[in-house]
Amino acid sequence: MLDAYSVAELSSYIRQMFEIDNRLQDISVTGEISNMTRASSGHWYFTLKDSQSQIKCAMWRSSAERQSFIPQNGDAVTAHGRVSVYEPRGEYQLYADMIRPVGIGDLYARFEQLKIRLESEGLFDIERKRPIPAFPRQIGVVTSPEAAAFQDIQNVLRRRFPLVEVILSPTPVQGESAPPQIVAALERLNKHTQVDVILLCRGGGSIEDLWSFNDERVARAVAASQIPVITGVGHETDFTIVDFVSDLRAPTPSAAAELATPNIDDLVNGIRTIKDIINSLTAGHLADLRADLNSAQRTMGHLSPAWRIATLRQRIDDWSARLSRDQRKHIGLLRERLETRSDALNAANPQAILARGYAIVSQNGQRIKSAGEAQPGDGIIIQLHDGEIKARVEDNETHERYKRTLF
Predict the structure, then answer these.
(1) Which terminal residue of the chain, N or C, has fewer Cβ atoms less than 10 Å from its own Cβ?
(2) Rounded to an integer, what distance in angstroms lies between the CA atom of residue 318 and that of residue 325?
(3) C-alpha to C-alpha distance for 131 and 228, rounded to whole angstroms
(4) pLDDT above 70 for 153
(5) Using CA atoms, how far apart are residues 90 and 16, in angstroms rounded to an integer?
(6) Which CATH code is given to the segment(s) 135-262?
(7) Who's near 13: CB < 8 A, 6+ residues apart?
(8) Of 255, 214, 263, 211, the residue nearest 232 (C-alpha)
(9) Which range is most confident: 76-80, 293-297, 346-350?
């Protein structure tokens, strides 16, 4: 009995068979697009069909991002790529790396050749893209003055940012004579104006209508511009060479005007919001400063000479009151002592004794303390409380002068 394959082994074997066939690894298939899905990952999934059959297709993000033509359901296209097997479902499918619409063969080939050449020169590099000014004062517009695109641009600018000045550098945007005139219009804005950004625009049309913007001369003029360039050519699905060279690609002329300017309503609202924030922050900051000032004033009040002087003055008043109390108390004590001693002195004062009827007898300045100290005939002084009496001592019983008995 022959060995049996597993389903996975069989799918893997079939895939290997597809991949060793060189014709299937470099093949172009023509059909109609259906079931077109653009995944969030950036990959494209679609089906190519004709009246008799269909084949599932996938285009990875890396290839899809290089596509200038964005296919839609119902488009007749030629897809180039390789055929292989998606093993988990056992389905063969075309892994496309390029899609171009059927019927423009020569123009599309020229488009792809120029795109590859300019890309190899670095004209598409992100590093050379210049920033678009946030608040342009002047905007240069390169387009036909009769085109509806110019009116659309002016309407958008008047609505979004009426402060900006629009300078038109007119040029035809279609026909064989258009490319050199577009180049001249770009050069005029670079040499003779002070515009901040250039809008290179035209409305939608067929690939033939838009072919002036696939011209190498126009592409190189955009790359050589000293002023940032925003392109808005055709509709959202239209890509031209100048879109890859410019500093910013917009899907339409109106979108280019929007990308070039801020919205004045947003600016006004932003200013109001900032004003409210500033007022709130200022009020809060002032409140904090006021609190700090009050705290500093209280601290300085405790440290200031005036406060210290007031404190010392109150302390002096306290000391003065205490001293007055102590003085009064001390004087009272001294007065009591004085009165006590005065009373003692008064009690011992001879005058006080004399006032009670006593007398002091002295002779020749000497106090007579004994009766025997004075002899008859001696002169004596008797001191009373209110004066002195001079006397002479007589005998004990008779007074010779008056011849009479005294006692």
Answers:
(1) N
(2) 11
(3) 7
(4) yes
(5) 13
(6) 3.40.50.2300
(7) 5
(8) 255
(9) 76-80
**82, two tokens:** 């390789």
The pLDDT, as a whole number, for residue 199 is 97
Judged against a pLDDT cut of 90, whether residue 16 lies above it is answered with no
Total residue count of the chain as it appears in this document: 407
Task: Express each pLDDT in 89-107 by its tens digit.
Answer: 888 899 999 998 876 556 6
- pLDDT over 60 (residue 1): no
- In this structure, what token pair is assigned to residue 367? 């106090």
- Could you tell me which CATH number the domain at 7-103 has? 2.40.50.140
Strand 76-86 and strand 404-405: pairing?
unpaired
Kindly state the helix (H) or strand (E) to which residue 229 belongs, with its residue range.
strand 229-233
Mean pLDDT of the chain: 86
Q: What is the pLDDT of residue 24?
A: 87
What is d(CA 118, CA 121) in angstroms, rounded to the nearest whole number? 5
pLDDT at residue 400, as a whole number: 61
For 407, the token pair is 């006692």
Calpha distance 327→122 (Å, rounded)? 108
The identity of residue 297, as a single letter, is Q
Domain ranges of the chain: 7-103, 135-262, 354-405
- Measure the CA–CA gap between 114 and 213, rounded to whole angstroms: 12
